[in-house]
Amino acid sequence: MTTLEKLRPVGPLERYSTARHHLGFYNNVALTARHLVPYDDESSLKDRIYGACATVINDYPMLSAVPVDEGSREPYFARLPKITLDRTVSFYSRKIHLTNDDDEDAELDSLLETQHNTSFKTDPGSEMSTAWRLVVILDSEDRSAFDVAFIFHHALGDGMSGLIFHRAFSEALVSFNGTPPTEVISPSREISPALESALYITISPLYLLKEVFWSSIGWQERGLWVANPTGTTPKSRYRSMRFSKDTTARLLSICRENETTVSALLQVQIARTLFSILPSTYGKLLCNGAATARRWMDVNAVDDNTIGCYVAAYSETYIRNALQTDDFPWHIARQSRENILKLIDTKGKDNPIGLLRFIPDVNKMLLSKIGKPRTNSFSISNVGLFSPKESAEPAATTSNAGPRVGKMLFSQSGNHFGTPFEACVVTGGDGCLTIGFAWADAAFNEELLLQLMHGVKHGLEDLVLP
Question: What is an example of a GO molecular function annotated in this UniProt entry (predicted)?
Fold first, then answer.
């Protein structure tokens, strides 16, 4: 096997993902986008996609990096000398034609679920593959567009990195002209820095002592729903739903009227729906949220066009009695927004991600959680609205000559060591909000998730009825 160029150590936040990947308990994250680029046949489309991949790989050195020695205490990133596109890109033909009015896409959900149960590991002695892959999804009845699933190792990038990839990929698709390569020589430039190298996260002694104390006693709040304990047979599940452009616009408008945000609204609606499903013995829910840490970083090191993993975390507790009201509790949604704003004001101080640097062996720490109760009820991650560089308008309204991206879907593996399920939220270039639910199969029965999806969808749509 070729000796790879060693780049830099894996950072503490990245190490959390390399450990989970090594243990087989969390494989990857994905952002899927519909690219509105007409094509004549699969052969010509393959040429265009390979050409676009070559451009994006050259522009983003992180795509040539792979984590090595994930099972050790000191994993590191190395550079692949080249990327063979036939190994990295695959094509899938839809069996069921989908219309633009469909709220659900069971075939795509199933494909993504399979991808999230497939790691990036290679057999010993084999050449290492990339820590990302593309699946191009074609519809034989519609050659005006195609879907591209960008699946990547979470140590390689965060949800926003998926948006960055598709923006660059869309532009490269339109500008492609020439003979496409089947192999791409990796760029020799430096890869993106680790979060902790670009941002010092201050951890106060009091906060550290408090977290160590609660972790050591394993105390759990009475009445808190956390689903089943972590299991030993990891299997990820995934389902998604989509809201129309009109409903999405109305949700945004009603949030502004009530001085809150879509993320805060979704947190409250999910908690409200869960309480309506769960037995009354459960009176509390703990929500974990993910937010970008890029806003606190030096733009010369990390900006909104950097592929890398740069997230911070926050949490919020919801009480049954406060949410089970006849009218929607907008005051709770405003409180949730204020909680997110408080996170922004901290600039990362005493954030849970800062504690990762104090864990000498993440693999050992994660293994110690098997069979233990979970600590949270659900998570939410909203990567926001996709828009091309040139305009903040939804891409579906731009000129046919420019990059155009429509529907998008955010997804990931179930978090077998963490929350029972995660709501993955994105608004595509078509102006439609989509919510993907990723969960660990052992955490709870699928029927609960289906009830949750139904309740969340109808609850949100009822809020914006004319």
Answer: N-acetyltransferase activity
Half-sphere exposure at residue 390, Cβ-oriented, CA atoms within 13 angstroms: 11
pLDDT the model gives residue 23: 94
CA distances (Å), 5 to each of 54, 133, 156, 182, 187, in order? 20, 21, 17, 22, 12
pLDDT tens by residue, 244-291: 999 999 999 999 999 999 999 999 999 999 999 999 999 999 999 999
Question: Which helix (DSSP H) or strand (DSSP E) does residue 435 occupy?
Answer: strand 433-440
Q: Which of 285, 280, 290, 328 is nearest to 456 (CA)?
A: 328
Which amino acid does the sequence have at 141? E
For tokens 């820590």, the residue is 131
Q: What residues are paired with 65 via a beta bridge?
A: 79
Q: Please state, for a pLDDT cut of 70, what percent of the chain lies above it.
A: 95
Provide DSSP, 32-73. EEEE----S-HHHHHHHHHHHHHHHHHH-GGGGEEEE-TTSS
The 3-state DSSP composition of the chain as helix, strand, coil percent (nearest 5) reads 35, 25, 40
| Contact of 123 with 243, CB cutoff 8 Å | no
Task: Provide the token pair at 411.
Answer: 């997804």
CA distance 64 to 307: 12
Q: What pLDDT was estimated at residue 149?
A: 98
Q: Is a pLDDT exceeding 70 seen at residue 219? A: no
% pLDDT > 90, the chain? 82
Report the mean per-residue pLDDT for the chain. 92
> Could you tell me how many helices (H) and strands (E) the chain has, helices first?
13, 16
Please report which confidence band the pLDDT of residue 214 belongs to, taking 50, 70 and 90 as the band edges. confident
CA distances (Å), origin 366, targets 18, 232, 356, 410: 11, 12, 12, 25
Report d(CA 402, CA 398) in Å as an integer. 7
Work out the widest C-alpha separation in the chain, in whole angstroms: 65
E strand spans, 56-141: 65-68, 76-79, 82-84, 89-93, 132-139
What's the N-to-C CA distance of the chain in angstroms?
63
Domains, the chain, with CATH or none: 5-185 (3.30.559.10), 203-463 (3.30.559.30)
pLDDT in tens, 347-403: 999 999 999 999 999 999 999 989 999 999 999 999 999 988 654 344 443 344 555
* pLDDT for the residue numbered 221: 82
